[in-house]
């Protein structure tokens, strides 16, 4: 018998709107029901993606323009999915992500 695949929940919203707070509250509620939960964020969520986050938030990527910044976001997301999200889901965890693809569609 294989373990059930986890669930993926994303929270979207502007800066300071409470996404991280809501992610923690939701994680606590799910854990209280005996579920395995992984809270993560974008950009970030894996060692490489956290480094990209530092570059993006520092302004160092600004000279690259919107296309260059989008490429950095895409590279960070690919690593985040491969290193953090997919393994957690495969292990049956519920993953709560502070931002995901909707943040790059606007």
Helix-strand blueprint:
Elements: E1 8-11, H1 19-32, E2 37-41, H2 47-58, H3 65-90, E3 94-98
Parallel strand pairs: 1-3, 2-3
Helix pairs in contact: 2-3
Task: Describe the structure in your own words.
With 106 residues, the chain is an alpha/beta fold. It has one domain. It is 49% helix and 13% strand. The protein is built from 3 helices and 3 strands, in the order E-H-E-H-H-E. It has helices spanning 19-32, 47-58, 65-90; strands spanning 8-11, 37-41, 94-98. It has a 3-stranded parallel β-sheet, with helices on both faces. Helix 2 (47-58) runs antiparallel to helix 3.
In short:
The chain is of the alpha/beta class. It is built from 3 helices and 3 strands, in the order βαβααβ.
Features:
106 residues; 3 strands; alpha/beta; 3-stranded parallel β-sheet; single chain
């Amino acid at each position: 018998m294989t373990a059930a695949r986890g669930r993926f929940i994303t929270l979207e919203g502007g800066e300071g709107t409470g996404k991280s707070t809501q992610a923690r509250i939701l994680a606590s509620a799910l854990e209280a029901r005996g579920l395995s939960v992984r809270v993560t964020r974008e950009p970030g969520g894996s060692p490489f993606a956290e480094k990209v986050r530092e570059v993006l938030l520092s302004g160092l990527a600004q000279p690259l323009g919107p296309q260059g910044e989008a490429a950095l976001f895409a590279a960070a997301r690919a690593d985040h999915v491969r290193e953090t999200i997919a393994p957690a889901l495969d292990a049956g965890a519920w993953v709560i992500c502070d931002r995901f693809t909707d943040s790059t569609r606007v």
